[in-house]
Amino acid sequence: xxxxxxxxxxxxxxxxxxxxxxxxxxxxxxxxxxxxxxxxxxxxxxxxxxxxxxxxxxxxxxxxxxxxxxxxxxxxxxxxxxxxxxxxxxxxxxxxxxxxxxxxxxxxxxxxxxxxxxxxxxxxxxxxxxxxxxxxxxxxxxxxxxxxxxxxxxxxxxxxxxxxxxxxxxxxxxxxxxxxxxxxxxxxxxxxxxxxxxxxxxxxxxxxxxxxxxxxxxxxxxxxxxxxxxxxxxxxxxxxxxxxxxxxxxxxxxxxxxxxxxxxxxxxxxxxxxxxxxxxxxxxxxxxxxxxxxxxxxxxxxxxxxxxxxxxxxxxxxxxxxxxxxxxxxxxxxxxxxxxxxxxxxxxxxxxxxxxxxxxxxxxxxxxxxxxxxxxxxxxxxxxxxxxxxxxxxxxxxxxxxxxxxxxxxxxxxxxxxxxxxxxxxxxxxxxxxxxxxxxxxxxxxxxxxxxxxxxxxxxxxxxxxxxxxxxxxxxxxxxxxxxxxxxxxxxxxxxxxxxxxxxxxxxxxxxxxxxxxxxxxxxxxxxxxxxxxxxxxxxxxxxxxxxxxxxxxxxxxx
Length: 559
Fold this sequence. Notes:
Blueprint: H1 7-12, H2 19-25, E1 33-35, E2 41-43, H3 45-50, E3 58-64, H4 74-87, E4 92-96, H5 101-105, E5 113-114, E6 117-120, H6 122-126, H7 132-152, E7 159-164, E8 168-170, E9 180-182, E10 193-195, E11 197-199, H8 204-211, H9 215-224, E12 226-230, E13 235-237, H10 244-251, E14 258-262, E15 267-270, H11 285-294, E16 297-301, H12 306-321, E17 327-332, H13 334-340, H14 353-371, E18 377-382, H15 389-400, E19 406-409, H16 411-414, H17 420-431, H18 447-457, E20 463-466, H19 468-482, E21 487-490, E22 510-519, E23 524-529, E24 548-549, E25 555-556
Parallel strand pairs: 3-16, 3-17, 4-15, 4-16, 8-11, 17-18, 18-19, 20-22, 21-23
Antiparallel strand pairs: 1-2, 2-14, 5-6, 6-14, 7-12, 9-10, 12-13, 14-15, 22-23, 24-25
Helix pairs in contact: 4-17, 7-8, 7-10, 9-10, 13-14, 14-15
Protein name: Formate--tetrahydrofolate ligase
InterPro entries: Formate_THF_ligase, Formate_THF_ligase_CS, P-loop_NTPase
Organism: Rhizobium herbae
């Protein structure tokens, strides 16, 4: 058996083309590409604004079942499908999110795909890339500093320091910073207060950058951020501290989409990176809408399972940006079906058709949920070498009972050559005009009813429970004019429920609401459920232990 190369070895051996050539494929002139080295660039705001009158291509969403330790390969499938569409003669662009350093050094790894379906330069994309996350972190923490500084110099806005809603952020998993006390050390350091850190991908500034249409919209949304409340409960906005202009300046370059390439030298936009379990889980609106003007097909992904990523893609991103997806791909694996069917990770190498059949309930729930949005669905079975024909057949037969088709995909091993069947199916779904997309709930539905609708229609929960204080807060926001906003559920990615250990397709469970946060700038209400954390921690053995520079000066251990 031939030696299996690691993702980073495959990426390093890639024959990359100069980024100006990749841009030329999409008709982007060299003067509108702002290079970061030879293999990555930003697309100018001027060029983007010039594309507004052009017709849109077709939008394809790649989503997945609930993630398992067995791995599903959603980004890999997204990249592979983009290459597959180009292979069959379609002009296609991939639009994915940037990687957070937290999971890179934690347990999940990077976000550049895998095997022979990757975007490159893989090391740069998974580490500092073009500095977007650093800019977002800096803009967020500038606002944090301005709040404490405003209070120190007399508190002209009468901020109630017990009701400051703005925390700090950093792009790393660090549980020690979740809850802290700041400004200790005496009078010169300000007024001590409780605060804490979230991870950068949970920042409202990240969400704002990913939902803004241009710099003017960005600055307005930054000004709309509610940073605190006065003693009379009236909100204090970022613009009240004159923070919006300086924050926009820090984000000026970060607002421009990044263009890189796949291993097969096809264009890929990598821009923005909110998590889907604690944020809205989609790449930037400006990247997706720009790609739609430049290509026949745009393949984008939404984070984690369809209960989180796809629901937020449809109900937040598409609603806000006026996008209408033409088809959706749900990624599944035989290994994941077996885990959902009760098989332990160490036993996944053994054929177990009964467990596959039992675990298919999770896949079926996601298929049915996506169909509720009026979008046609196909299932991509991401192939692993130990999968058996009987296991694959069981998945295909099950999906057929749902009125959909499951297609075996071998892009990890074969690149676009292993993706032709899925590419053709996606084209067939997209071009027959069957998509009747509509969000799950209307804008004018009360906020708590929106939460219940998601919990009952998507999670199949029996009830939503929340303290009176949470319900009262939602009503106050409605009275203040925020009742039309969509909901962004912060929930475990591992289950339809709020219990990460409850696999399969549970019904009748309870969704407890712990906290609600108003993201007035981003334009949604964050609903925090169960034990979900907005600042993750590192595992006992973090991935960082295996990352190092080899004797040649190359990075090893990234995946």
